[in-house]
Amino acid sequence: MRRRTPYPPSPLPQRDGVDPVRLRLPAGEVCATVRDHLVARLTAGADMIDDMFAAGLIVDATGRPVSKDASYVPGMFVWFHRELPDEEEVPFQIDVMYRDQHVVVADKPHFLATTPRGSHVAETALARLRRDLGVPALGAAHRLDRLTAGLVLFVVRPEERGAYQSLFRDKQVRKVYEAVAPYDPALELPRTVRSRILKERGVMAAREVEGETNAVSTVELLENRGALARYRLTPHTGQTHQLRVHMSTLGVPILGDPLYPVVTDPVAAGDFRRPLQLLARVLEFTDPVTGCEHRFVSPRVLQSWSSYDAWAA
Hints:
Blueprint: E1 21-24, H1 34-41, H2 46-54, E2 77-80, E3 95-99, E4 103-108, H3 125-133, E5 139-140, E6 149-155, H4 161-169, E7 174-182, E8 191-198, E9 207-209, E10 215-225, E11 228-235, H5 242-249, E12 278-286, E13 293-297, H6 303-306, H7 308-312
Parallel strand pairs: 6-12
Antiparallel strand pairs: 1-2, 3-4, 4-6, 5-6, 7-11, 7-12, 8-9, 8-10, 10-11, 12-13
């Protein structure tokens, strides 16, 4: 088996809990200088890239600034910090449920992304925890949708991250969700929904298509109050938006969902009034490093269930 060459350590520290960008100059590309490659590859624009070179913000593996006219060398690494976007602060707390020398289990609020991605960088669960806990090497073992609240597993030591990520890849983690959605007395529950879900790059919503099943979810009714009900959702596979798609297919789309059954206008930045009513309630697994049996339960109460009258109106 061919071993992967380890990446050199970053010569730049984190900034606001966010790692610097690392780029490796690919072989087979015809560029005269490092600058030519960055201008072609990045969306920042030539003027901004030139300003970064002038300020010494683009560095090599030794931490030395790379000059604007440095020759292109295939395989060379460069590092720099991305320009952080203006982000709306998510005004909700992330709670640490458990912490040891190997893992951190956090209870993430709605609207907070798990890891830096797109326009959400410093205002993410990972960046916040790195800053708050003083653990710059912290990494996520899996990802929870930005709009979904609940339990997320983070790994303290980079060399152990693969072992914990394998738990999710190999379906050795039991996850149970809770959702609030319309109540349909004609809907026979519990039931297991099976379908094939396709999520295309650049398309916001996933969709069900013909073909071999790749998404399986069990849906159970916990209780109902008039027009609304509380459901227990157990995913047996991990397709993007799986639970949201399956609930919509059953005719009871989760409250506050901006994508299912139809894509609606984006919620204005800073509008946190009606979060998606989906919660990752239970996280259960055997620790691959220590052998300990772990079971965590989020104490959160979905807003629509605690403020039923406002949501049912």
